[in-house]
Specification:
- With 463 residues, this protein is mainly alpha-helical.
- It contains 17 helices and two strands.
- The relative contact order is 0.15.
Amino acid sequence: MMRSPTLGSSIPHFRASLDFVNHPPFDGAARVRAMARSIPEGIAYAIMVGAGESFFIADALRLGASPFEVGMVIALPLLAASVGPLLVVRMLQRAVARRPLVAGSAFVQALGLLAIAALNAAGNFTPTGLIGLMCVHQICGQSAGVAWSSWYADVVPAQRRGAWFAMRTRFVQLAAFVGLLAGGGLLFLLESEGATDGGEPALGFAAVFALAGAARLISAVLLWKSPEPLARPLASRSRFGRFLLTHDGRTVVRLLVGTMLFQAAVYVASPFFTPFMLEGIELNYAEFTTALAAVVVTKFVTLPVWGRCIDRFGARQTWCVALLLAAAVPIPWLVVGGPAGCWMAQAFSGLAWGGHEVASISLLIGSTRRSVRPQVLVAQSMANAGVQFGGSMLGAAVVGAHAFTTAFAASAVGRLVVAAGLVFAVRGVRRRDRTPVVLRVAGYRPGAGITHRPVDDPSDANA
């Protein structure tokens, strides 16, 4: 006797058909359009990073921010934003559309930057207002970054992924450098030196953040117009717990815990290099911009060299060297006394952080399974945000009670102690995944310059 299909059995077919009705077909032409639009979109995004994110602390100092508020400008937005990737990963487990999420987040970022520009122009701004808008900016930025990685990992064919993302990242890095120079030039031409109470118009900062907001608005429009393939659900979180009980999982846990301690020591000093340059050494905006550019240029030049070191000597060996270099970053700042010293210290920072960034990503990706990698990266982001906040608050207390150089010395000691322990603790790494690491520009961090995150394929997480 034949049975007619029940309502329950028809629902999956109905939902599948709805997906194809509501989602335009993603054919070869759509793929070409998505990849072509991503290049100018990345350039617009990078101009936002270079012209906007690079000057948040400088704006806070103009507004008369205290050491505590300077620490909050960096640490609180990162702490608030750490929940963004977690929420996005949970959404990806349900195969939600990524284009509206990414484009919407970019649009909110554009509005926030334009609001900062308007408040600076009106002379009606405070450090607290800047911190609040930066929290929104970072939440949207980190959420968009995770969803964009999933989206474009599906867009770009696997055989072209490494070369295409490397080419796009080069364009993005160059555009971020141009945006940085443009922002610094506007400040030098339009902005007076020194702090105010926020009650005076600041045309230079208004122009800088207006440029950044306009660039992000262009980026949002291009994202909205870019086709998206149908999303596949992310693998379940249940594998993550089982992975942590394995040999590789325990190694990753040691790496993550050690990285947390290292980041805590880093952020005792990191938020305060900019105040030291602008208030301690009293660089003008042209000299300050040149110092910021030194990090970006050095990182741009040395990243391929670090990549070749990883290929030749391995991720762990390269990571150990870069870790010790990153630990030594605050030491030159103890003797810096002028613009030339700042440029050299910043160049050393770009060298060290470029190597640390690419080697630590290679080490983490190479020692994890695809099925748990998104959860590992999210766990790392959330854990680091918490200790970065604590380190920044400790650094603010030290700067407030003593001096910038005291915080730099404390950070150097903490970094070196943790780095020495990490070199011995993280051993026996068995590289599980030899796929080349693909990076995207993730934003700007004080002391480290333009930062990168891996472009992984969460949709492929069953591997």
